[in-house]
Amino acid sequence: MLGPRRLRATRGQRRSQSHVRHVRMRQALRPFRLAAVGQVLERFQFIAFILGCGLLFWQQDAAPVDWLFVAGIVASVLIWKQGAPAFDLGGPQALLLVFLCITALATMLAGGMPRFFAITVYLAFASLALASMLKRDVRRIRTIEAALVVAGVVAAITVFAGGIAEHVDLPILKVFAYDSLRAKGLFKDSNIAGAFIACSYPVAAAYCLRLRRWRSLFLSVATALFAVGVIFTYSRLALFLFVLGVVASMVALAVSRRWRPLLALCACALLAGTGVAGAVAMDRFPLYRYQFVQSYDETGRFEGWRVGAAMLLQTPLGTGAGSFESRSTEQFQAEHEQQYAGERSATDSDNLLRNGAGDGLDGWIYDPNAFSVTPISDPTSVTGFAIHKHTTGSYQDLVEGIPVVGGHTYSFAAQIRSDGAPALLIIHWRDANEVTVAQSGNEPAVTSTLWTEAEVDGVTAPDDATTAYVFLSNREAGDQYFTAVRMVEGDKAPAWSPDMQWRRPTEPPVEGISAHETYLRLAVESGIPGILTLGAYWVVLAWSAWRRRGASWQWPVALTLVLIAGLVIDSLHWRFLWVFTAVAAAAFTDSPVAEALTRREAPVAVPAATMAALTE
To answer: Where residue 463 sits, what CATH number does that domain have?
Structure first.
């Protein structure tokens, strides 16, 4: 019989042996537990990215796609902490990381916007995580493709809904409209919505061509739906990209000798062209929206490019992420001061109207598509200059607006001569809502070929008037000339004197505008080293995608379309740009080394004999 001391020692040995077996079993099972956790994280990552791609039709600040992509990045970080590859850092991805470092350095040194840089970093790492996920199982690219097709279809439908909002009595549809003409769906802007639909079309076409039945029918329906979405955005860029996508699809079908779908696609293109031509013939299609150069191009896009080029020459090493708009404001201010250095301002004159001498059109606005206005030298005028209007209809006006005080008295005068067509002065008094509350004018109208003084004297502004718009007007087509244009506060306008001429604007210079160009923005903000690095990254990916296109021709076409769009619009933060980039990166290499680096071993079940040995 064991004594108490021997009994306690035996029990202690048994507990110690049981603890050792328990520790060994936990150590043996830990890899399998980690593998199970890793599988759960991978499934979560996969679902987050797939749902995010399926929701690309909704791209605004803090849209669901961003929350899902962030969740996918977090899952990737947890996968990486377990020792598995979660971010694609091979191949050309090093160029992307170098670009981020260059931009970070420029942002810190030049005072850029950390928020703008953070968005760029977020999208870059979402692309790296998505590329790694696709490399581990390239079959997932098909699922990404299906999600993008869903997003493209929904985007086209919502744009169509916004396009018909003005024609049906459903106010809820106006949430999808950009204005009374253009639709935007759930995007910020019509141009971005149209570009997404156009760039997604090759992916949708390829998806339809892989269906087992009714390929031609589904391809025709998809083409018609995407075409409607593109047209209702009335975006020149989107239409151009869509035509390129359709042509690329036709070429792919011809190369692969798939004649029936090719014939269906050609029939769709012919019907679409006939429909648009008919709408144009019936004057039901806003053809002016597709003029090569619009008025806002001259005052917006082209000005942005000009100012961006000047900033690039001044700071070739970069101004920091997101700084283009603020820097362009400074550039405009400097140009404004240089342009009007030494010029008189409104405080130097009793004349409320800018550039009344007629030696230029600063301060005056008109419709250049309706009639022509030209400042000319005229020795017979009191100022030595005149504004020549060549009109083709009545009331084709040259206009200038000035602030007024309700209840005060104003006088408006000018010298006028004409070829016989009646010319006159008109004042529109408008309230704070830009509603015309009263108007005044001189009578009779001037028809003389000699300089004649026209006056609208002693007019009291309505009490609710905040702005007066003065019109150099006409009642019939012809040639009219105006000079010594002046408006003063008081009962009568004094005779013209040189002190009444001033050109310096009373309003501040134009605020900073967007770059309207991806590569110019990158060159200005990240500097020449940054644009060269990121440009090389995109070129390498696009070249590799085209070399390996095979049956997956849609991806290099889609990526190329997005890169082309960047030439005339700022696309750096487009979510679908980075999705296409990730797909191209996932297919960059099929080498055994890359395959080994990105492959995760599947967990295996613990053998029963091993479990029995561990638990003994």
So the answer is: 2.60.120.260
- Is residue 310 within 8 A of residue 499, CB to CB? The reply is no
Bridge partners (DSSP) of residue 58 are 186
Residue 350 has what pLDDT? 87
Tell me whether strands 58-59 and 186-187 are parallel, antiparallel or unpaired. Answer: parallel
d(CA 574, CA 238): 14
74 within a domain of the structure (yes/no): no
pLDDT of residue 171: 83
Q: Domain total for the chain?
A: 1
In a domain, 120, yes or no: no
- 88 found inside a domain: no
- The beta strand positions in 132-279, using DSSP E, are 186-187
Is the CB of residue 429 less than 8 Å from the CB of residue 487? no
Range of the domain at 496: 346-500
CB atoms within 10 A of CB 164: 14
pLDDT at 76 over 70: yes
- What's the CA gap between 389 and 505, in Å, rounded? 23
pLDDT category at 166 given cuts 50, 70, 90 is confident
> What backbone phi and psi angles, to 5 degrees, belong to 437?
-105, -15
Q: Residue by residue, what is the 3-state secondary structure of 390-454?
A: EECCCCCCEEEEEECCCCCEEEEEEEEEECCCCEEEEEEEECCCCCEEEEEECCCCECCCCCEEE
Q: Supply the pTM of this predicted model.
A: 0.73
What is the DSSP track for 45-67? HHHHHHHHHHTTTEESTT-HHHH
**Does any domain span residue 495?**
yes
